[in-house]
Amino acid sequence: xxxxxxxxxxxxxxxxxxxxxxxxxxxxxxxxxxxxxxxxxxxxxxxxxxxxxxxxxxxxxxxxxxxxxxxxxxxxxxxxxxxxxxxxxxxxxxxxxxxxxxxxxxxxxxxxxxxxxxxxxxxxxxxxxxxxxxxxxxxxxxxxxxxxxxxxxxxxxxxxxxxxxxxxxxxxxxxxxxxxxxxxxxxxxxxxxxxxxxxxxxxxxxxxxxxxxxxxxxxxxxxxxxxxxxxxxxxxxxxxxxxxxxxxxxxxxxxxxxxxxxxxxxxxxxxxxxxxxxxxxxxxxxxxxxxxxxxxxxxxxxxxxxxxxxxxxxxxxxxxxxxxxxxxxxxxxxxxxxxxxxxxxxxxxxxxxxxxxxxxxxxxxxxxx
Length: 369
Prior knowledge:
About 40% of the residues lie in helices and about 20% in strands. With about 375 residues, it is an alpha+beta fold. Strands 5-7-6-14-13-12 form a 6-stranded antiparallel sheet, with helices on both faces. A two-stranded antiparallel ribbon has the order 1-2. The two termini are about 30 Å apart.
């Protein structure tokens, strides 16, 4: 490749990338400042050719295959529509399972999960899936529970998508009346304010988990189109009715919603929404993992206790969804909830360690798919 500069022509030697498929191509963005600080940006398209046709050292093939695998992983995490086949990720009843093509959970962590499960059989469910698609694990992730306030995340996602379509505007005014009154979580029940913008209602609904804000949004946007969105995501439990704004869900269905939230986060309205989720109160997940950035929405009522979200700044970002029925013993319940969250993160960390130690095996498996 030749690059023109003010000093003349510079010839760069670009190594041929080797990959055992004759049909795949890789587009690499090369940016390099010249001696005179001119920025050079040129795309190089390199064809992959069959390894058997070229005599290069094995380490050379392995290195470039590894770089290709890394690039594919980064591209997968940034696809406009990133889909994990969560719906068909099946689990045996009352059995904790880890699904990964290569990774095997340590006996120590398996034993810790078994101890918790044996102490509370059928008493909770959880589901975790990494955003690199390489590992998922859970316990009874298809069992359904009351969503409590965690329903406010999927409904707010729907509201933002309606705004994107022009059905409403962030600055539209909604007037509070006593019909919207609700106690429980939130700040609006203590305000003298009457008129709220849609933007304020969305913020209050997520940040403060405001029941009044949610009721006003629910009244404004309705349920029919919301249920259409839920159908499109492959969920069956999360549908609502005109007479009830509180739903039911399984951890896997909530994971489907959070996958869509992740896909939506880089859009104009998605950025507003995701920022609210990152800073939402009552973050039971972050209470256990304070050093991590976690977008979430929790729920707590007489019928259920749960939290759902995305742990972002782990080496492998992941969706986590944990649901409990009504906790008869709040203190013991909180302890077990935190134990599960911590163990789930330990599994992901153990998986990250495995990736670092077994790059060669992983990249070959990925490239063969």
